[in-house]
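Predict structure. Chain length: 411.
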Amino acid sequence: MKNKLIRYLILLCLVSIATSNAAVAKENNVNISWLAAQIKKHPQVKAAKEELNAELYTADSLEKALYNPELSSEFGKEGSEKTYTLGINQTLDFTKKRETRKQQAVFARINAQRNYELLFQEKMAQALNALVTWEASLKRSQLVSQQEKQIENLLEIVKQRINSGDLGELDAELTYLSLSQLFGEVARVQAQLRRAEADLNELLPDWQNNKIDIDENNWDIKALQKYDYLIDQHPLVQATKAQWDVAILSAEVAKKEKKADPTVGLEAGKLGSEDVLSLTFSMPLNIRNNFSSQYKAANQQASAAESSYLAVVRKQKYAIEASKLALNEYRNRYKKWQALMQGRGKNSESLLHKQWNVGDISTTQYLLTLQQRTEGLLAGIGLEQEYKFALIQLLLDTAQLYIQQPVKNEK
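Prediction complete.
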């Protein structure tokens, strides 16, 4: 009978804390847009944006003309007569390499943009995980601090009851031991909380004990949808695909460079008293080097880029599958834990203390019940934390954390 009573009291204790933890405070809450704005202020993200702008300018350079006109002049003397000519030369893009480079620029911009988006989403996931860690650490800290206070109060009561003869010295010793064991746990949990706070201060410049206000149900629905089409939309996959496209076009440019481009010119001047007008033409002779090795190398690079793309698609597919399976496991257990804890009472602590006070349970049983209660609640907090981690990981793997607007370089 006593064992059943103890188990019932443990369950009531678990429910009491679970209910209080479920009611997350609404004050100082922040949303996903605020979080994104904070991420943009991070030095690493700022550096990535500058690198993106540099790559966009590099892409712009691919669209420019390959050859600038050249101005030439010549001054001389033939006998007593002075001569001079002034000319302009222009190398012609005979094989239309510029058109191919323009196509390269399109994919180069896609590659740059997607790499920035990938870093941004990874930082978003890092910040969300840090917030989840901090909230879980805060709950653990509140829980163990509450237990520490309970045992300290219990110790005072035990001392009084020993003096009145209701309890023996063994009860005091058991309470001392429980309290001494708890000190280490409290210190460890408090240290974890401080580390979590430091991580958030590093990631989010304006963070002030804010909690992220996210509708987990909506996120869960988002994560449960079919994800096959999301693979091709992932920034890493799109960036790798763009790199492959650039490599293909680089091979095409290399092929065109096997053919030399001619240079034409127009010169005008005077030879003594005579006007001179002439046309010039020159053509490099690709005899000693026909650039075939460069073309072969570019083809190999394109083949390597294709294999890299296929490898990324394959890796992303199985990463999403693994994340989805992990989320299902954590979600199912977390929902079961919530259902088990729901609606079983809020006065477990006072009931437990009352049972001990009237002698229905011993001090040993009371302390054991408190310890089991704490361990059960810590397990629930850990389960909730892992469930949120799994949810964030799947949303990261499917690139659904935050949609970035395209970044344009300032000209």
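Summary: The domain at 2-67+95-259+293-397 is CATH 1.20.1600.10 (Outer membrane efflux proteins (OEP)).
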